[in-house]
Amino acid sequence: MSDSGGLPHTIPYFLAEKIKGDIIRWRFPPGSNLREVELGAEFGSSRGPVREAFRILELQGLVVHSPRRGFRVRKWQEEELRQLYRLRAQLEGEVIDVLAGKDVGVLADALDRINADMLQHALAGAIDAYFSANIAFHQRIIDAAESAVLSTVMNQVNAMSLPARYLLMLKEFSGRPQYDYHSRISTALRDRNFPLARKLTTEHVTTNLSRAIEIYFKALEAA
User: Cα separation of 164 and 76, whole Å?
Assistant: First the structure.
């Protein structure tokens, strides 16, 4: 930890995670300007680390920079959002294919535990906890593939998709449909039925695509 403001030594990464959370939860909606001075004052940091945090988020695809306008939260066009969802589905399918050559018993046990947590969060109406568990479910599968290529690309795609995914969940939160899909994916993996696991995974990612696009652009109009 640093001696100033309780911020860690890796201040830009700390700030990037904080700002990323605010982008995902639409405190900073797509297209909005990110101001170094204001955020620096909020977090008790100088402008330099905040600027570096913006650069980190730019690499993750969450913000864009232009010479005269500075940093802004990335705003998707409809076709771009479709491409993002479809790419994520294809990549997660590739991850399942890699798992076909591995022992997935430990993975299935871990996924069952995450599913149980998700169900409890859904019953409690704990949206943020449910969303975090949802991300953890998919990340656990990616990690189990032990593929540097898939992990790197999927981390990028997942980061870019998070604001749209969070908004969809926020507007239509029940927890049950996603939990059911996750449970079926976990069971298919445990049974080593990888074709079914792949089918369920890609369906799970794309099944709400049209609704996600509709909600995203309605939120943009209201922002």
Answer: 10
Please report the sign of the dihedral spanned by the C-alpha atoms of residue 209, residue 174, residue 154, residue 185: negative
* Residuewise pLDDT in 10s, the chain (223 residues): 344 445 555 889 999 999 999 999 999 999 999 999 999 999 999 999 999 999 999 999 999 999 888 999 999 999 999 999 999 999 999 999 999 999 999 999 999 999 999 889 888 889 999 999 999 999 999 999 999 999 999 999 999 999 999 999 888 776 555 678 899 999 999 999 999 999 999 999 999 899 999 999 999 999 7
Render the burial of 159-174: b for 16+ CB within 10 Å, e for the rest: bbbbbbbbbbbeeeee
CB 34 within 8 A of CB 54: yes
pTM over 0.90: no
Q: Are 16 and 53 in contact (CB under 8 A)?
A: yes
- Ordered domains of the chain (ranges, CATH): 11-73 (1.10.10.10), 78-222 (1.20.120.530)
Q: How far is 47 from 179, CA to CA, in rounded Å?
A: 42
Instruction: Find, among 105, 100, 109, 107, the residue nearest to 194 by Cα.
Output: 100
